[in-house]
Specification:
The complex is a heterodimer. Chain A is mainly β. Chain A has no helices and 9 strands. Helix content of chain B is 0%, strand content 51%. The radius of gyration of chain B is 13 Å and the shape is globular. By secondary structure, chain B is mainly beta. The chains are: A mainly beta, B mainly beta.
């Protein structure tokens, strides 16, 4: 059960777009369309931003979008805003009947 | 409003046991899978365990398999995590998380505020 691979940090200026990658294997990300993304502010519980690769829960800004190609999933945030500065985690179901998180990515808005 | 309230976190010595509880409200508890996710201080999220709506399917992370047991009582709208043979590396904030309809291959959506477990002599 190795963690999914995410970049430790990404940054962007207000108004720009950024993409966070999440790389797994064909036993997790590549094998199922059950990839989700979470946003976490310091000291707060995570919040679901994307589920089933590309679906947004009600109330989540359409600036957030998700996609997948092969064993890699991506979260894109367009029109970057200061309030987007947070940690982001991907998560996937696995063939071992478990779920696995990525190591997390710290987004800095310059 | 969906609410998940964890309890049972404490300071315990290595090798001892502890039971966490999660009281759920605001949704039909016995329709949904449930999970425990933990976060060590300053670290990322780690999925610990999940249980389907009827307890028919259960999964554990390798790091806790054989030491932790997840269970639920649908009559009491409650989720539990029995932790034994605790180690220093189990020190973390433990979140109770609502899963998808039925089974736990669906996403996790609503999180509690967490309960803190500290394992230290």
């Amino acid at each position: 059960q190795s963690a999914l691979t995410q970049p430790a940090s990404v940054s962007g200026s207000p108004g720009q777009s950024i993409t966070i990658s999440c790389t797994g294997t064909n036993s997790d990300v590549g094998g199922y369309n059950y990839v989700s993304w979470y946003q976490q502010y310091p000291g707060k519980a995570p919040k679901l931003m994307i589920y089933d690769v590309s679906n947004r829960p009600s109330g989540v800004s359409n600036r957030f979008s998700g996609s997948k190609s092969g064993n890699a999933a991506s979260l894109t945030i367009s029109g970057l805003q200061a309030e987007d500065e947070a940690d982001y985690y991907c998560n996937s179901y696995t063939s071992s009947n478990t779920r696995v998180f990525g190591g997390g990515t710290k987004l800095t808005v310059l | 409003e969906v609410q998940l309230v964890e309890s049972g976190g404490d300071l315990v010595q290595p090798g001892r046991s502890l039971r966490l509880s999660c009281a759920a409200s605001g949704f039909t508890f016995d329709d949904y899978a449930m999970h425990w996710v933990r976060q060590a201080p300053g670290k990322g999220l780690e999925w610990v365990s999940g249980i389907s709506w009827n307890s028919g399917r259960i999964g554990y992370a390798d790091s806790v398999k054989g030491r932790f047991t997840i269970s639920r009582d649908n009559a009491k709208n409650s989720l539990y995590l029995q932790m034994s043979s605790l180690r220093a590396e189990d020190t973390a904030l433990y979140y109770c998380v609502k899963g998808g309809f039925g089974d736990f291959y669906y996403h996790m959506d609503v999180w509690g505020k967490g309960t803190t477990v500290t394992v230290s002599s």
